[in-house]
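Before drawing any conclusions, I needed to go through one protein's amino acid sequence and its backbone structure tokens, quoted below without any editing.
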Amino acid sequence: MRRIFKQRGLVRKLAATETLGSVTVICTDKTGTLTEGKMQVSHVLTSARELISNDINGLTGGQNVNGIESHITALKIATLANDAFVENPNDELQKWIVRGRSTERALLLAGMQSGLDKQKLEKQYPLVDRISFESDHKFAATLHRKNRKQNTLYVIGAPEEIIKRSIDLDIDGKKEKLGTVRADKLIKKLETLTQKGLRVLACAHRDYDAEMKYQNLIELAKGLSFVGFIALKDPLRQDAKESIAITKKAGIRTVIVTGDHKLTAKAIAEEIGINAEDENMLEGQELETISDAELRERAKHISIYARVSPRHKLRIVDALQANGEIVAMLGDGVNDAPALKSADIGVAVGSGTDVAKEVADLVLLDDNFKTVVKAVEQGRVIFGNIRKVFVYLVADDFSELFIFLANIAMGFPIPLWPAQILWINLIEDGFPDIALTAEQETKGVMDEKPRNPKEPILNKPLKFWMTAIFFINGLAAFLSFFFFWKLTGDLHKTRTIVFTLMCIDSLILAFSVRSFKRTIFRKDIFSNRYLVGAVILSAILLVGGLYLPFLQKLLTTQPLDITEWLAVFGISLAEILLIEFFKKRIFGRPIHSAYGLQKRS
């Protein structure tokens, strides 16, 4: 958990660290995770003309506003139908703190940039009623008192929804009928903007009698006068494309789940390397019409879900899980909570709501998609470390069992005293074993396919390698016992040599199990400073056990001369060469990975 926290991810549930390593699909929004979340208005487009961001400066303060009345109206709507606000408007511009959603903050700043003052506008047109943007109705609206006899409704939201609710076209204050031909032209303009990867909103308004009764603004928002489009740009994160490439290499599919237009999502997806053909996209409107069974089948190939609402996210998660996928779902809103809860790994962005964070397994403190990828990598590392510790302890202890069984079968004396066995298990194995839990061997971890969560810790490749270690170390210890016993005739000396050999084997094996894929003979083999320190400490204690009188008495050992030390290291070298040979043979096959991961169908 501490390692993931260093990568700017906060793990809220301990079990999630293991599940992260098994993730096969990541469902993410694009805003703030794949992009920088720094929304800026780039275009204001009406039937009269198009203005880019630089043309907005001081727009309302100009002497001649002919031909740009619609643009001023669009920015006015964007400013008033907006929940964002400046917390400290009396401070300098550079010190402003703007609160609200990223899109609404950008709209508010664009209005201010043009010369509009939200506070003055709200005094001039007092607020009567409002609804915030929700994915269900796809627009925000505010009703303002225009004068004693009239109220004005300002609406901003998804272009398709606003065009559908509009009957007139506002062209610099003049209204013209919005027929099918003009509506089609507006759709073409919309597509032109969205194909550039821009988020596009539409603005409209309508005047009502001040005394008119209504139930809610959703029902009131019809028969509108369409004003124009406001396009916003949000730069891609520099590391987004690299992160997507890493997930692909790791066998993880990234799916964009967004409320934006499908062409906006498609442009972003193509830029970062996600497959975005028409058959790989599904809109929320179509998602409503298909059955769960059909969604499950189509979910195998869909990489973009556009114009979706939070309830759609839950169906998407369920469909993917029904296909056997391990799903990580990103969300930020209150309504995202069911999908986050249902996903195998719920991921809340740090700028999201408290409700989303509460149900999430992982919180992204920097809102960055790269943090998810790093968390998955650490999840794989953690599970890999569990396997390393398991293999190290079991394989090493079983080698001791081999020599005992062999000596009993041959009628030889016991090869080691109980105190020596305890020393090997507690001192020589204990410190390296603890150090292996801090292993950070990440090279090649994200080159493998996700691990099947049903796969046991001890899989077939690990069993084969452990068996090889069992026979290699055990047989070497048995033959050494037999040879030195016959050579010297000194059982006490022989036991000391075998004890030393098994201690040295244990310390060298710790470096071998650092990676199941990479050889021990490499430049960075000593990069785990905790393991190096543990091995040095264990080696010092071993020397003390052979040369310090009180430890000699405890362990029943005696000093070794230089020839005996050379013999021990020579045998250990031969053993590690054989162990490394079998490691390469077993884990070097394409069907297996460094962490025992298996390819998924």
Q: What stands out?
A: Residues 62-66, 590-601 have pLDDT under 50 and may be disordered. The domain at 379-587 is CATH 1.20.1110.10 (Calcium-transporting ATPase, transmembrane domain). The radius of gyration is 34 Å. The chain has three domains: 2-35+237-367, 40-233, 379-587.
